[in-house]
Specification:
With about 325 residues, this protein is α/β, with parallel strands linked by helices. Helix content is about 50%, strand content about 15%. The chain is elongated and about 95 Å long. The chain binds uridine-5'-diphosphate (UDP) and magnesium ion.
């Protein structure tokens, strides 16, 4: 009996990447082409480029490349910038529904995710793993700030019992079953690396060295990074709300003791009036804590607000 090799789709989100694609697409395609030649994957395997509302000539570049390399590229153009996670989700949904995909790999288009491990990932899939994580073997290419931010972040996540793979971003392989399961997750606040471990399919890791970006600039500035980080915590754990409850209880208990102390001073003190510091300091302190806790609750209310609207995660303007 002839077994058809699996159809591989590589999803590549692109946002303002006109200077990158010329260089990266042939290199990534070469890996897929090798797999096709060795009959490891189907000859209908493709790269799926998702233009996430780029403001530069990314779409023009995609069209040029598609003419230059026939039968390699499929592409989607989103109507505007929906963000990296949504662009990846758009690509995966399209891969599942329209391209008959058996195996889907998502990766960045700037060659920071080393394409040389694609074949290893596919081999792991063929060995029976539905999910294969691309994991960075070291973080020595990061700035010290980014590295320690990441370290602390993983510490907090593991403290909150949120299951995510350290040093894995969005370079991963999903088999058809995992892809089907993932695209059923209907939340607007997408944090894919938090959802994938929830699927529960057998998974493994492949390690790679993360390179510098070949051209262009990183779209993850500090504010986007923090937003993604908060999303990662607050979309997967309500522990911060419980933390507020504990904080409130501890402060209430403390204030009971403060009350007893104040009463003691009044009744048995030698007439000295407790200074203004003991009033003003707790005032600022409690004011700060109240604003902080309201902010935390606000994040969750905001998320409920966003999810309640059920807005589409992305809109497609054009297909290629
Ligand atoms: N990206 C995207 N939409 C965005 C931001 C980024 O599709 O709003 C893509 C980007 O083109 C790249 C990948 O997501 O392929 C990762 O982004 P980037 O390289 O800027 O992040 P970094 O690697 O610096 O964390
Ligand atoms: Mg990058």
């Amino acid at each position: 009996m002839l077994i058809m090799p699996s159809l591989l789709t590589i999803v590549l989100p692109c946002y303002n990447e006109q200077g990158v694609l010329k260089q990266s697409i042939p290199i990534i395609w070469k890996q897929v082409d090798n797999l096709i030649k060795n009959q490891n994957v189907s000859p209908d395997s493709r790269l799926l480029l998702v233009d996430d509302g780029s403001a530069d000539d990314t779409w023009v570049e995609i069209q040029t490349l598609s003419n230059q390399y026939p039968n390699t590229i499929k592409a989607l153009k989103l109507t505007r910038n929906f963000g990296h996670q949504n662009a990846v989700f758009a690509g995966m949904t399209f891969a599942r529904d329209r391209l008959n995909t058996d195996v889907c790999i998502s990766m960045d288009c700037d060659l920071q995710d080393d394409p040389k491990i694609i074949s290893q990932m596919v081999a792991e899939y063929q060995a029976g793993y539905e999910v294969v994580y691309g994991v960075r073997s070291s973080r020595n290419k990061d700035t010290t700030a980014k590295r320690s931010f990441a370290q602390w972040y993983y510490r907090i996540l593991s403290g909150l019992k949120i299951d995510i793979i350290p040093d894995h971003a969005d370079y991963r392989l999903l088999g058809k079953k995992a892809l089907n399961a993932l695209t059923q997750f209907n939340e607007n606040n997408l944090f894919l690396r938090g959802i994938v471990p929830l699927l529960g399919y057998p998974s493994t890791k492949v390690y790679y060295e993360r390179e510098e970006r070949i051209a262009g600039y990183s779209k993850y500035d500090i504010s986007r990074m923090i937003r993604l980080a908060i999303n990662g915590i607050c979309s997967f754990s309500s522990a911060p709300l419980v933390f507020i409850l504990w904080l409130g209880m501890i402060i209430s208990l403390f204030s009971v003791f403060m009350g007893i102390w104040a009463l003691g001073v009044k009744l048995f003190g030698n007439g000295s009036i407790p200074g203004w510091a003991s009033i003003v300091v707790p005032m600022y302190f409690l004011g700060g804590i109240q604003l902080f806790t309201m902010g935390v609750i606000g994040i969750y209310v905001g998320k409920i607000f966003e999810e309640a609207k059920h807005r589409p995660k992305y809109l497609i303007e054009q297909e290629l």
